[in-house]
Each structure stands twice: as structure tokens, then as C-alpha cells.
Amino acid sequence: MRNTTANDDVFRLIATERRRAADMFASLNNDQWQVRSLCSEWTVQDVAGHLIGPFCGSLLKFVIGGILEGSFHRYSSRMSHQLGERPPSELVAILRANADSRYAPPGTGPAAALTDLAVHTRDVARPLGLATTASPDAWWQVLEFLTSPRAARGFTRRGSVAGIRLSATDQEWSHGEGQEVRGPSEALALAIAGRDVALADLSGAGLPVLAARVTAPKA
Fold first, then answer.
1. What is the pLDDT along the chain (219 residues), one digit of tens a residue?
2. How far apart are CA 94 and CA 88, in angstroms?
3. How far, CA to CA in Å, does 125 sit from each of 32, 43, 84, 111, 130?
4. Cα distance between residue 139 and residue 124, in whole Å
5. Within 85-168, where are the H helices?
6. Cα–Cα separations (whole angstroms), residue 203 to 7, 166, 167, 169
């Protein structure tokens, strides 16, 4: 089992994945930009707006906006729609120009930024039938983050992987004890992050438990 990499290495992974995402967005036609992503409230263009959000406003503005809106989630969603209204070429250019940014969400660190990027890239690529996905090293870091307590701050449901053993079939990664859920790193990460479409790519005695947790209505 490898060790979690230092922040500098995570930021290098982020830079690679931002450029990969930018290349994917740049390849899309007008119709593809309007396809509904795995985030049901967002189109592909809205997801791109979300990904450039950290480079189009300050943390202070986000905090104030979330307070005034009464919900950071609602404010983030509204801003993603607003930023997504920019021309696709501008969205791609902003994402590519900031590939090397060392922005990290307060309290969660760069692994959270990598997770947001890797998961949202698949939120776009999967409905479009594209193979674009993060590297195995990136997915390893994403899985480490998603199974940590920090991920409960907006990425996962608290306790969603408790009492389950998760095992990647495409690289050396595992977490937890109990009935096993196994499958590709990407599918494990997407399922833990609440994308129930990825459950079909997983197997094991623990799968019904995980499925019930990630598909349960939010309180």
C-alpha cells in the first residue's frame, strides 16, 4: 500500500487532470455542451462553470454569498449556472490557464480539489460516452480522500462506507473491514460520491449495503 503523497504531488496531479478536462471540453460540439451531466441539476456547461468557479471570485465572496443565500450549496449551484453561461471557448481557456493553480478548499486541502475535478470530469464524460478519466494515481488519492472523515464536508454521506471493505480491482487499494465491495477505482469513487450509475460496475456481498446508503433520499 502506497502512502498518501505530499501536497506538491497532489497539485501536480490536479494540473494534469485540469488539462485533461480542458482538452475534453474543447472537443465538444454545441449539442454536447447542453447534455445533462450525472449531476442532475447541471448540464455539461454548468459543470464547466463550476470547475472555473475558484478562479472567478474570492473565497470571501463565496462565504458571504453562501450566508446571504442561506445555503452554500444553493449559492454554488447558482454561480455554476451563471459562470456556465460564458462562451464554451472562454470556459476552456480559463480552466487551461489555471491548470497550475494551487487553490484548495479551506479545511479539506488539495485532495478535495482533485476529487472535485476527477468526479466532475466523469460527470460530463460518462453521459457523453467519452473515455476521459483521471489517472490511476489520481483515483488512488481520490479514494483516500473519500474514505476519510474530511469527505463528509460536502462530498459523501457520513457513515456511507462504515462496516464495508472496499477493494479496487485495477490497482492496489483497499479500505475498511466487513463485507466486500470491489470494482474499478473510478466506479468505487463515483459510487461513494453518490453517483448511483456506477453501482452497476461494482460487485460483492457489501454492494447492497453501499447501494442503499448512496441512493437513500437526503434528509
1. 444 457 899 999 999 999 999 999 999 999 999 999 998 889 999 999 999 998 986 554 555 555 555 555 665 677 778 888 999 999 999 999 999 999 888 778 899 999 999 999 999 999 999 999 999 999 999 999 999 999 988 889 888 999 999 999 999 999 999 999 999 999 999 999 999 999 999 999 999 999 999 887 765
2. 10
3. 10, 12, 17, 21, 5
4. 16
5. 88-97, 110-125, 136-146
6. 33, 10, 10, 11
Beta-carbon count within 10 A of 190 CB = 28
Residue 134 and residue 110 in contact, taking contact as beta carbons nearer than 8 Å: no
Model pTM score: 0.89
Cα 2 to Cα 141: distance, rounded to the nearest angstrom = 10
Q: How many CA atoms lie within 13 A of 185 on its CB side?
A: 20
Residue type, 22: A
Closest CA to 123 of 14, 4, 25, 200: 25
Q: Pinpoint the alpha helices (H) of the chain.
A: 7-26, 30-33, 44-52, 59-69, 72-84, 88-97, 110-125, 136-146, 185-192, 207-215
